[in-house]
Amino acid sequence: MNKTLKKIGATIMVFAMLTSCEAVKNSNNTQRGAVIGTAAGAVLGGIIGNNVKKKNSALGAVIGGVVGGVAGGVIGKQMDKQAQKIESEIPGAEVTRVGEGIDVVFDENSGVYFATNKYDLNAKSKANLDKLAGIFKEYPDTNIVVEGHTDSTGNDSYNMTLSKNRANAVTNYLVSKGISKGRLTTYAHGETLPKYDNSTPEGRAKNRRVELGIVANEKMKQDAQNQVKQ
Questions:
Q1: Is the separation of the CB atoms in 135 and 78 below 8 Å?
Q2: Second-level CATH architecture of 3-229
Q3: Under 8 Å CB-to-CB from 84, ≥6 apart: which residues?
Q4: Rounded to an integer, what distance in angstroms lies between the CA atom of residue 4 and that of residue 87?
Q5: Burial class for 151, CB neighbours closer than 10 Å (0-12, 13-18, 19+)
Q6: Residues 6+ apart with CB under 8 A from 23
Q7: What are 184's strand-pairing partners?
Q8: Which is nearest to 170 in space by CA: 104, 214, 126?
Q9: What span, in angstroms and rounded, lies between the C-alpha atoms of 111 and 168?
Q10: Residues 6+ apart with CB under 8 A from 45
């Protein structure tokens, strides 16, 4: 058995133990982040992070940026607050706390969306991005990955360009609202990373989305580690 398979086996065993523990089931995101980070952070960062990050995905950036341990728990606590703020101010957004980061999805039914075959931001999208920019200013020690996605309608090349233009529209708007360009990384995926069934109108609508990954920057990581040492 090679080293990768051994690591995968170890990961499965760790998750089996963690998910069967009542204390972990009843814990919050911050507590789970600290426990998982201590027990399996290196394995998760190495296997899951590297595999997902090959696709330059928002979720890959979140998983691949794991610090782990007690410092990871400190970061997780700050991310809990930011996630709650986004959920409170932008109810249509699909906000998921993942490890030490946040995954935010906007589709045609929630928050930031585009007319068919268009990439210009409408009034409602701008209003929600204004709120999001305000939250990002409150939490300056985070970096943001912005992804554009489409459904499977149309050819691959067209969809890739469309998703790129939509992601750039969001990134450029956030920059215009005072978010440092250095905090933002933009990717386009076209139709290659669907989350829903493209054979249904509802699934296609949800796949026409902009997805954001919010992760700790180096300052937040260092501050968390310094706090642990005190």
A1: no
A2: 2-Layer Sandwich (3.30)
A3: none
A4: 38
A5: buried
A6: none
A7: 144
A8: 126
A9: 17
A10: 63, 64, 65, 66, 68
* pLDDT confidence of residue 114: 80
Structure tokens that stand for 85 in this block: 């703020």
Judge whether 145 and 96 are in contact, CB under 8 Å. no
**Mode of pairing for the β-strands spanning 184-188 and 210-216:** unpaired
Q: What is the pTM of this model?
A: 0.74
Return the higher-pLDDT residue of 114 and 199: 199
Confidence (pLDDT) at 51: 41
Contact 8, 51 (CB under 8 A): no
> What is the rounded CA–CA span in Å between residue 114 and residue 220?
33
d(CA 122, CA 55): 29
Q: Output the six-digit token pair for 195.
A: 């989350």
**Residue 193, both tokens:** 């990373």
Count, residues in the chain: 230
Q: Round to whole Å and give the CA distance between 152 and 200.
A: 11
Ordered alpha helix ranges (H), the chain: 3-20, 22-25, 29-43, 50-53, 58-64, 69-89, 123-138, 156-176, 201-207, 218-229
CB distance 140 to 121 below 8 Å = no
- Which residue, chain included where needed, has tokens 């489409």? 150
Q: Crossing angle, helix 29-43 and helix 69-89, to 10 degrees?
A: 130
**Of 13-17, 99-103, 131-135, which has the strongest mean pLDDT?**
131-135
Q: How far apart are CA 171 and CA 55, in angstroms?
A: 19
